[in-house]
Amino acid sequence: MLRDAYEIDKFFIGIQRLTSEMDAQLARIDGLLDDDELYQMVRQDLEQRYPLTQLTGRPSTPVGVILRMLIVKHLYGLSYEKTEQYVKDSLVLRRFCRVYFEAVPDHSTLNKWALTIKPETLQALNARVVKLATQLRVTSGRKLRTDGTLVETHIHYPTDSSLLADSVRVLSRTLKRARQVLGDSSELARETFRDRSRSARRAARQIGNAARQGNQATRKAYRRLVNTTQASIQQAQRVLEALKEETSAQAGKLRATLETFIPRAQQVIDQTVRRVFEGEKLPPQQKLVSIFEPHSDIVKRGKANKDTEFGHKVWLDEVEGGIISGYRVLEGNPSDQDQWQPSLDHHIQQFGRPPDLASADRGVWSSGNERYATELGVRRVILPHRGDKSDERKRYEKLPWFRRGRRWHAGIEGRISVTKRKHR
Predict the structure, then answer these.
(1) pLDDT at 209
(2) Which of 140, 158, 360, 388 is a plausible cystine mate for 289, CB 3.0–4.6 Å?
């Protein structure tokens, strides 16, 4: 049953005050978290974890505790395990999280609750924080700077051979677990549960060695690995049919795993056959770069040290006062020029008027983007021209207000760096 909060423990607060006071940053956040609208946004998601979360079951970790512990996690860049440990050991954090003398929730419990918070809710929470910052006069939305970055997914560099080997490894591991559920009484043959991981690893190494010998040897090694992967898929499909007749919770989890990874393994085989054997050049949107993180995009940003990256482009809007007023996770590898107009439109929607100054990097520049901002009423448009510049344009970009705007815009690079490094 979902709980809102623990009862305030005055004895605990008295003891805590004898030790150390809450630092200024935590104290300011503590005051903001008393906002009921923020609280209700999170509660609406948490109450949907199970159909009867609000009515039945043992009392849950309070909503306020979950929200505050997640903020501690992101504020200090901690793992879930470290968050649990830090809150347990600190009277200040116990008070901030409103845990008092109660048991601190386990890190796995905190992780499960966190997964119920929807991306749309996070967007709404950020919008509410911006509104509170406006009310407190931290910002007024007069200045806007916008820029993008790439958030990489934690995957190894994708090659066809490594993806095929990953597929065999995951399917073989799942078949081993399925054999324990189905038992020896299963009608499936022993060969159905065969672990082909070692064969796949050997074939993947042979591909690396064959690459030095020429294209023909490489294709032969790839054929062996593809055949091994196809055999694993056929085994997994037979086991999946058998698991459908089981009613245990463990069988259900294994079914879900096989239903997830069999199509991904088939996609890896398809793209390998098309690329290696048919010589087809696949477009990025048709490539699977990880069977574990299939959402990862292939992004080329022209970086000298990283020609190709894997993850998602994220676009950030920042206003004066150091407030991230908006963010967008982009699909694929869209042009930076396409992000200027949505950023301005979102700013007007949020603050009710255009910014006096708006800036971005030269990759965003286009005559259409400059004209769009001017027509909206932006007085200072800071978009450095790309390529060769006319004498008139050079004089324009040397105007004092333009140069001040460029210096102010440089601050978003630091904001992005801190956000990626600390608040992950």
Answers:
(1) 83
(2) 158
Alpha-carbon span 372 to 368, nearest angstrom = 6
The sign one gets for the Cα dihedral 59, 60, 63, 65 is positive
Torsion of CA 338, 342, 347, 350, to 10 degrees: -160
* 402-415 mean pLDDT: 94
pLDDT digits (tens, 9 = 90+) for 290-343: 999 999 999 988 777 788 899 999 999 999 999 999 999 999 899 999 999 999
Give the Cα separation of 201 and 354 in Å (integer).
58
With beta carbons less than 8 A apart as the criterion, state whether 19 and 90 touch: no
- DSSP label at residue 246: -
In angstroms, the CA 105 to CA 114 distance is 12
In this structure, what DSSP letter does residue 276 have? Answer: I
Model pLDDT, residue 75: 87
Q: Is the dihedral of CA 130, 135, 136, 139 positive or negative?
A: positive
Using pLDDT thresholds of 50, 70 and 90, give the confidence band for residue 212.
low
Q: Scanning the structure block, which residue is given the tokens 């849950």?
A: 60
Least confident range of 3-7, 322-326, 375-379, 391-395? 3-7
Burial of 41 from C-beta contacts in 10 A (0-12 / 13-18 / 19+) = buried
Say if pTM beats, i.e. exceeds, 0.70: yes
Amino acid at 53: T
Read off the DSSP letter of residue 278: S
Q: Which of 178, 197, 321, 202 is nearest to 255 (CA)?
A: 178
The first and second tokens of residue 176, run together, are 């081993």
Question: Shortest CA distance to 197 belongs to which of 245, 243, 164, 244?
Answer: 164
Which amino acid is located at 54 in the chain?
Answer: Q
Taking a C-beta distance cutoff of 8 angstroms, is the pair 107, 114 a contact?
no
Distance between CA atoms of residues 374 and 105, nearest Å: 52
The amino acid at residue 138 is V
Sequence-distant (6+) residues with CB within 8 A of 274 are 280, 282
